[in-house]
Specification:
By secondary structure, this protein is α+β, with helices and mostly antiparallel strands. It contains 18 helices and 14 strands. A hairpin with a 2-residue loop joins β13 and β14.
Length: 481
């Protein structure tokens, strides 16, 4: 949709000679343009454009354009569909990136309906399209997009994955929403114990993400009621990941206490997945490691102000059939950790040598990135909780575009997408970047790209040429004009 055909260029050239053009802009190339070019080079727009709907009759607005709008909405930070109407749908630069022509920007797609401030189309059109998108189409679109990333980039190749969940507290009657009761005990002024019961409505977003070069990429996700335990979908996420990447792709899985289940750890180990998980303070297996530390057992590992003990052949996790390994923190930031305050982890990774103990500890330390670089960023910067509707379809479409574009932006920031930017640029604007003195001219439903001098010449105001000799001398001296 962005390729300039030769007859289109000639048509705009002729209209420009007559002074019959609607708009012109310099071909400044910004970060948003580069990111869109990367998506084009990857082929992601084809995936988004293929999402099917239940809309049977023809409509004025192409479905691919609606999906482009939803993708760019996530990038530019519009918090809601209504905000799009007042924001990005009034920004000609973004509309052109979406694929709109100058005529569509000026007149709208449906001149009978989209009048006044509702050009080029009303956001209710997006709401309607979302309501007609089956959930299975969202699942298919996600899988197709992830296959592209897995095939064309290296973001899923390191084998370190993090599984985590985050609460989405909401008001309103969303389809499938859950209610969680929280009971808290407190002391009143008289020293009596009181009980406070609080109810929260919302969902949990459970994700399986890959960590690559300090950037997180979501591989699989589930949205579940807030009162459902996240561990119930953990096997599904692993299965999704292995189906997409192949057996053996997930080498190490970092999880928190909410996913601690011995039977699952055993099953994942049988699939070639090693796990690291912190222990609850009242667990028998942690007390066993503390006891072993008191009698001088364990492999000691030191680094700076950190001291650890590594243990093998631990058997006191009843739900795990077999033996586990463990880590116990005995000194932290140079301070000795007292026996009953020592904390630790269990793992299926080896802990027989000091360097193995330190490596396992360092691997789990990376799990904290999911809180700052995924959960918090998605909620605050990507408006994760601002669903465009209360139906399950609206929820899934919203998460598709939020999480996919989260991956795309991280790919862009990591530098791994640079070659796709170049490829996309060639496809988007084949001659545009050869120099900066280019002008994009919009005439009706056409547009063309011209050198600044040609643009002025076609308007009947060519440069005099008096400075040509001076420009030649400057160039010969290596001084840019």
């Amino acid at each position: 949709m962005w390729v300039i055909l030769q007859h289109q260029q000639e048509r705009v050239r002729e209209l420009l000679r007559r002074g019959q053009y609607d708009d012109a802009s310099l071909s400044g190339w910004g970060r948003l343009d580069e990111l869109v070019a990367m998506m084009v080079g990857l082929g992601l727009f084809e995936v988004l454009g293929s999402l099917g709907t239940e809309i049977k009759k023809s409509c004025f607005i192409p479905r691919w354009l609606i999906n482009n709008a939803l993708a760019l909405k996530a990038i530019v930070g519009e918090p809601s569909l209504n905000a799009m109407q007042e924001g990005m749908l009034r920004d000609a630069t973004i509309l052109r990136l979406m694929g709109c022509t100058a005529k569509e920007i000026e007149e709208g797609f449906d001149t009978a309906r989209n009048k006044g401030d509702h050009k080029p189309f009303h956001v209710d059109t997006i709401r309607y399209a979302i309501s007609k998108t089956p959930e299975e189409e969202v699942d298919r679109g996600w899988q197709e997009a992830l296959r592209l990333l897995a095939k064309k980039t290296r973001v899923f190749s390191k084998g370190l994955f993090i599984m985590d969940s985050t609460d989405l507290i909401l008001d309103g009657d969303y389809e499938g929403i859950g209610i969680r009761r929280i009971v808290r005990k407190y002391l009143d002024k008289g020293g009596q114990v009181g009980v406070q019961v609080k109810e929260e409505k919302g969902f949990k977003l459970v994700t399986l993400s890959c960590l690559y070069k300090q950037h997180l990429f979501v591989l699989a996700w589930r949205l579940i009621p807030i009162n459902q335990h996240e561990i119930t979908v953990s096997d599904e996420l692993i299965e999704d990941g292995l189906t997409l990447l192949g057996a053996g792709a997930i080498k190490i899985l970092l999880i928190d206490r909410g996913f601690l289940d011995g039977a699952r750890l055993k099953g994942w180990k049988e699939q070639g997945i090693d796990t690291i998980v912190p222990l609850k303070s009242n667990m028998d297996i942690l007390e066993d490691m503390r006891g072993l530390a008191r009698i001088g057992c364990g492999v000691k590992a030191k680094r700076g102000g950190l001291e650890l003990l590594g243990f093998s052949d631990l058997e006191t996790l009843d739900s795990y059939e077999g033996k586990l390994n463990g880590l116990l923190v005995t000194r932290y930031k140079g301070e000795r950790v007292q026996g009953d305050k020592q904390w630790g982890f269990i793992t299926t990774l080896p802990t027989e040598k000091p360097k193995q103990v330190l490596k396992a500890y360092d691997e789990y330390d990376k799990r904290s990135l999911v809180e700052n670089k995924e959960n918090r960023e998605l909620k605050q910067g990507w408006f994760l909780k601002r669903f465009p509707g209360k139906s399950k379809r609206a929820q899934k479409v919203h998460l598709l575009f939020c999480l996919l574009m989260f991956n795309v932006v991280n790919l862009f920031k990591s530098g791994l997408g640079e070659r796709f930017i170049d490829r996309g640029v060639r496809r988007l604007r084949r001659e545009l970047l050869s120099s900066r003195d280019k002008v994009i001219v919009y005439a009706g439903e056409w547009y063309g790209i011209f050198d600044l001098r040609e643009f002025l010449t076609l308007l009947g105001r060519p440069p005099s040429g008096k400075l040509d000799n001076a420009r030649i001398r400057l160039a010969a001296a290596g001084i840019p004009p």
